[in-house]
TrEMBL record:
Residues 32-140 form the Calcineurin-like phosphoesterase domain. The lineage of its organism: Bacteria, Pseudomonadati, Bacteroidota, Flavobacteriia, Flavobacteriales. Pfam families: Metallophos_2 (PF12850). This is Calcineurin-like phosphoesterase superfamily protein. Belongs to the metallophosphoesterase superfamily. YfcE family. Transmembrane segments: none annotated. InterPro entries: Calcineurin-like_PHP_lpxH, Metallo-depent_PP-like. Gene3D superfamilies: 3.60.21.10. It comes from the Bacteria.
Amino acid sequence: MNTIYFTSDHHFGHTNIIKFSDRPFESVEEMDEELIKRWNSKISKNDHVYHLGDFGLCKSHRMKDILDRLNGKIYLIRGNHEGAAQANPQRFEWIKDYFELSVPDADAPNGRQKIILLHYAMRVWRSSFRGTWHLYGHSHGNLPDDPTSRSFDVGVDCHDFYPLSYEEVKHIMLQKNWTPPFKDRE
């Protein structure tokens, strides 16, 4: 079975992100190589990767070279740095601003876990009161996590520069102290 992964904010080719996000790399070349290595260490050719934006900030031919080296079937949620990625649309299964994913999961209500994918964090989202998850990026770990909300930042700066599998996301979500807001009214 192919695995589903989530990630965000690689900023391939973006020299200044090293300084802005205090990344532990000496150069953009070192950063790009390490990000590619960590991506491919978890993701195989047929896995599904939902990238929640800010893929890179570089020339389109450089982005093509990077994309050609990455494993997986990549679905891109647009962030605010997608020029080079959008210049290479053939490498993505699709490119969208927002997506509602439904993952088969016997532990979820009705056997499917709904996940709202957007580059930006939201305080509420469709069916959040029913336990729908929300994954986002953009904040590079600078937005405090809400332990009572079924949402969090999947950006690489928050997860040792690795993508997260669906099972890893599920584990994090189930550790949160979330309760349905209307459970006492049922």
